[in-house]
Every structure is written in C-alpha cells, then in structure tokens.
Protein: AcrR family transcriptional regulator
Amino acid sequence: MTEQRAPRKRGRPRGGSDSRERIIGAAVDEFGEQGYDGSTVRSIASRAGVDSALVHHYFGTKADLFAEAVGIPLRPDIDVPGIVAGPRGEVGERLVRYVLEAFEQPDIRRRGVMLMRTAIGSRLTTPLLAGFLARELIGKIAKTLGVADAELRAALVASQIAGLLLTRYVLKLAPMASASVDDIVARVGPTVQRYLFE
Amino acid sequence: MTEQRAPRKRGRPRGGSDSRERIIGAAVDEFGEQGYDGSTVRSIASRAGVDSALVHHYFGTKADLFAEAVGIPLRPDIDVPGIVAGPRGEVGERLVRYVLEAFEQPDIRRRGVMLMRTAIGSRLTTPLLAGFLARELIGKIAKTLGVADAELRAALVASQIAGLLLTRYVLKLAPMASASVDDIVARVGPTVQRYLFE
Structure:
C-alpha cells in the first residue's frame, strides 16, 4: 500500500491528510450502511478511529460531511433555504432555475443522476436520500416558512422538484428533456410558489 | 418438470394455456432486454415461438401485453386519457385522486414501488418505464389535449405525479406519507389542472 501511495497534494501535513481520507471513507461506509438519520458525526469518527472534534474541525456539520462524502459540488441544504428566505415575489421561479442550472452542468448532473438511481433503486440506500431531504432541505425550508403546514408545503415542493429531475434527467422523457430551462422555469415556478405561499 | 406441473386452472385447453404462459414469459424477457419502445408484438411472438396473430388474440395491443407482463391490476393508459377527456372543471383533482386511490391499495402500491425502483435503479430498465410513459400515457394525453405544446403539458403532469409517488411511497417523506388523500388532492390537483389547461 504505502509504496504505491500517490504524491500528496497541496503539501498538507501527512497525518492530517490521512485522517481526512479515513474520515471520508468512514463517512461513505457509515452513510451507506446506516442511512443519513442513522449516522452521526460521533459514529463516523469512531469508525475512522479519530475524535469527533477532529471531524467537526475538518468538515463542520453532518450535512457538510455528507456533501463531501457524496462528492456533489453543490450545497442545496445551504442555497435552497437561502432562496426561500429571500424576496417573496419569485421564490418559485428562482428555486426551479437554481436546480435546473445546477443539473445542466455535466458534472453535477452525472453525480445527481447516480445518487437518484442508487437511492431509489435499493431499499437499503433509500433512507440515505430520504433522511438528507427531510433533515437538511425540507426541515430547513419549513423552519424558514414558519407556518403550521410548513413541512407539507416544503415536501410538496420536493415532490415537484424530484419529479422534474426524474423525468428530465433520468427517464429523459422527450418533451421534458428538450424543453429550455426558461420554459420549464416559467411553467413549474408558479407551482413551487403556490405550494410555498398560497 | 412435467411431473411437478401444478393442476391447470379454469379447464383451459392445454395448448392454449401453455402458449399464454410462453407469451407472457417472452414478453417479460423482451421488455426487460429491449425496453418498451424496442419491443414489438412481433418480436415477442417470435421469442415465444408463436404467431403474432395469437398474441393479439390473447392479449390485444402491446400496452395490454405490457400491463399483463408487469402484473399491475390497473390500466392508467386507458383510465388517465379518459379522465383528461372528461368534464374539464376538475380534471386535475380527479387525476391525482385516481393515482392516489390506486396506490393506497397494498397490491398496487407494492408492484408500483417495485416497478419504480427497478426502472429508475438500473440504466438497462429505465427505457422500459420511459417508453411506456411516453407512448401510452403522455402521448395519449397529448392527443386528447390537441394543442401545440400538449406533449410538454402532459410531461409536466407526469413529472408532478411521478414526484408525488416517489416522495410518498418510495422515499416515504414524513409529511407526504402521513398527509390524507383529500389534502394532497386539494393541493396538487390545481397544479395538474394548470399544467394541462392554463
């Protein structure tokens, strides 16, 4: 193993680099086996043989660590609540545009489609996506809305966005796959707006 | 093999019963390998070693044969275009209610979730669901609407319905899974109505 180790990047101190990699590896295994809700920073730290404080130091929260482990260069758990908390006028359109413009980038689309296929295709990994959606997206959006039925409103938005991604990028249904981002934003934006505020 | 054959049901003539089973088996294999669009009644008949006319005689169209092969006791390809062609007032609500009331039945839900998991989870079987949706649902709804952007309107409906089924029955997101059918119909019905007619 050690003889074939690739040259280290960015001159990071060796112990640190090893710990980081071990933590990421432990996170991938732990999320995969326990789902999002069943994994904790503590259980991942323990699996990696390091202290929880070191995990927090390198990666921040559980959501940060998940984003790092999945390798998606996008943080909907930070961006989306920000959009919902912004000016109310066109939250729906801005949110749909944010998602589509992300998925139009090949690297994000490839990883996103892979994540959807994996999470939906297997009973074992479904809790991974479901837990992340519930805690880090729906939960945060609902908190931002702060009304009695906020959780259901946020989940309805998730249902339309999930169906959009599924039909356009996974099933690639012809009229969805060929429609322009602007056209879809104009048609789906008002749906999201209504689910959130009306 | 023959010694262990189960007693035949309904006293159907033996040759006929064998042919029916062989056709269903061939349909399952052919749809699985070629997808919905890549399979024809002719290719399924050839695989089963029977004449195309016999397949039509026993099962009708390719859509009929697909429904039989998948084993879902529900014919959205017949029911949904019927709903869309009905009185315009509340097509959206009636359509959402139709889908939810079907999936509230355990037998349909179990097979439907299995079909979604399989079709989305594997690159190989995705064309199966995509082709059926495109030809037998979106295509027929679009024909009923008869406007220039009918295909996209029908596909948007498919996106919301797919996302609804995904979040409520596959991911089981808490607020979606626990909401009543009436509540979801009231919130999602107007979305479907708007995609179709506004």
About this structure: The CA atoms of residues 44 and 166 of chain A lie 31 Å apart.
